Amino acid sequence: MDRIDVILVEPIAEIQPTIYGHFAEHLGECIYGGIWVGEDSTIPNQGGIRLDVVRALSRMRPAVIRWPGGCFADDYHWQDGIGPRAQRPRRVNLHWGEVIETNAFGTEEFIRLCRLVGAAPYICGNVGSGSPREMRDWIEYCNFAGGSTWSEARAANGSSQPHDVTYWGIGNENWGCGGHFTPDDYATEYRRFATFAWSFGGKPIYRIACGPNGNDADWTRRFFTKLRRDYGRAPSIEGYAAHYYCGTAGTATEYTVDQWYELLDKALRMEELVVQQRAVMDTFDPKRSIGLIVDEWGTWHPPAEGRNPRFLWQQNTVRDALVAALTLNIFNNHADKVVMTNIAQAINVLQAVILTEGDKMLVTPTGHVYEMYAPHQGAQAVRTVLQTSAIEYGGQGRRVPQLSASGSQHENNLTLTLVNTHASAPLEVEIRLHGAEADGASGVVLRAADIHAHNTFAAPELVHPVAATPPAVSKGVLHAELSPASVTRLDVALT
Q1: Looking at the predicted structure, is the pLDDT value of residue 232 above 70?
Q2: pLDDT tens sequence across 412-430
Q3: Is residue 437 annotated as a catalytic residue, yes or no?
Q4: Is 272 a catalytic residue?
Q5: Which of 189, 197, 327, 466 has its CA 20 to 30 A from that of 170?
Q6: What residues does 443 pair with on adjacent strands?
């Protein structure tokens, strides 16, 4: 029997709701067809934004949404996306299939989406092909109260009050599609752009620098050396964002049992990134005034047959759900190190939480994990100590722990999220509480008899959460049985 000790008297930190963020790029059918259908569409919408997506996304409680990219951001000029839609220019989307970008969905539409689902907007600015002036004007357009040309333009576009956008990314993947900078050269660009990323009216903004591709400690070290040591007094930097895609093993829906474990193993490497990147940052920022962010992460499977490979559409199985749950457990357990993350992407692209096709919409297994994990937001992460066995796969000593867990406390409620990674065997778990006793517990579980199971438009609820068998409770000890290949949330009342 595996065991979890939940140390309630050793809180880690508050789990920032922004850890449960999302990402929406002008890529494939994420925006057009996924979020935006236009005001004249027969699909029910509010101001052109499809309402079934709004309702589904709202249930996941998205604390923040990042937009407009991604690679798209560093070739996007925000003035193309404001004003009367009929007069907006049509541009070529360089990175994602050279399709025509109509700019029907721009700043005002994005802000409206965020308001509809209750998310804070996070705008990624153009460093690669843009200018500091362009980003400065965008911030003025969004945040200055009134009386200037750009604030009056915002009012003419229907928003008399400032949008008060707090989160601003200074470029995206500037080691690659955002300009192919070295970390030293990007530090110079960051310094220039951040100087003009202005807090209009004294309202603070949160400037986010481009971090590494994966767990690249050299990028981080060189960036901060240039910014902090070579330049001395540097402009403000509030956040630093890495990207990590665990990739694939097999395809999105076809994989062996060994490939099942291989992908989960890759997902678990997120913990190394969080711990090691924070350690490098701590040498420059020991007080942790700069937040570690992972604003793109998730699976990346081969292109789906019969679909445009540049649109990055992929099916989403129970394996993807476990990747999401394992990763979110890591973020919860390191709530003292991570302040924001954004899964890639919200709709119809990569590890999407929602898929659409015409007027049809479904929530993926990954989307259901976000619904299940929502109670962690804003709660106090507590330490969990695991005693678990390892599953060997594929030879060469490769192993995956069978159990993953994270916990959080809000008042007299304890939320535990548990993953049984074993593809076919259930797992008995003893949970010991230290610092309180349990007065009862209930839960929900996401599971499937087939490890390849996924939702389709013909069967949109094949994989969805159901009530879990309540654990046996005896004062400070709970006993639960976890289904194979499952994600379970236990809600424990404390006394």
Answers
A1: no
A2: 999 999 999 999 999 999 9
A3: no
A4: no
A5: 327
A6: 490
Task: Show the tokens assigned to 260.
Answer: 């099942």
Distance CA 94, CA 100 (A): 9
Residue found by looking up tokens 């193993």 in the block: 265
pLDDT band at 233 (very low <50, low <70, confident <90, very high): low
Tell me the two tokens of residue 206: 């949160």
CA–CA dist 99, 450 (Å, integer): 37
Closest CA to 410 of 3, 57, 17, 61: 17
Mean pLDDT computed over 8-26: 97
Q: Which one of 29, 101, 173, 262 is the catalytic residue?
A: 173
Residue 374: alpha-carbon gap to chain centroid: 13
CATH architecture observed for domain 16-377: Alpha-Beta Barrel (3.20)
Alpha-carbon distance of 371 to 419, in angstroms, equals 15
Structure tokens at 158: 């229907």
List the catalytic residue out of 134, 140, 296, 371.
Answer: 296
| Type of residue found at 464 | H
Give the pair of three-digit tokens for residue 395.
């030879």
CATH T-level topology, domain 2-8+382-494 = Immunoglobulin-like (2.60.40)
| Residue 205 falls in which region: left (phi positive, over 0), alpha (psi -120 to 50) or beta | beta
Rg, Å, the chain Cα set: 22
| Measured distance CA(386)–CA(403) in Å, rounded | 8
DSSP letter at 462 equals S
152, amino acid identity: E
DSSP letter, residue 314: -
Rounded to 5°, the CA angle 254-255-256 comes to 140
What is the residue extent of each domain of the chain?
2-8+382-494, 16-377
With contact defined as beta carbons under 8 Å apart, do 299 and 262 qualify? no
